Amino acid sequence: IKNWIKKFFYRDLGTSLVHLRVLWLSRSCLIDLDGIPTLNNLKELYLAYNEISDISPCSLLENLECLDLEG
Q1: Cα–Cα distance, 1 to 8 (Å, whole number)
Q2: Tell me, what DSSP letter sits at residue 3?
Q3: What are 6-58's pLDDT values in tens digits?
């Protein structure tokens, strides 16, 4: 249920923060990026030290210039 809540949180975040350019989610216990494409103005996304196995949702972020997947 924890990841289900996060999924809806990111979708809501994307609809209310349309001008968001930088997002730090390092060490956030993430396992997927469902909902992250709603943040389509992101230029920098920091996801270090999570358990993400599929980063394909990031391919929909057309303005993304920096993606940190360390760890």
Answers
A1: 11
A2: H
A3: 555 656 655 677 788 999 999 988 998 988 888 889 999 999 999 999 999 99
Q: What is the DSSP letter of 43?
A: S
The CA-atom distances, in angstroms, between 58 and each of 1, 33, 40, 66, 68 are: 23, 8, 9, 11, 11
Q: pTM for the whole thing?
A: 0.77
Q: Which of 41-58 are b and which e, b meaning 16 or more Cβ less than 10 Å from the residue's Cβ?
A: ebeebbbebbebeeeebb
Amino acid at 10: Y
Identity at 56, one-letter amino acid code: S
What is residue 62's DSSP assignment?
Answer: T
Return the SS3 of 68. Answer: strand
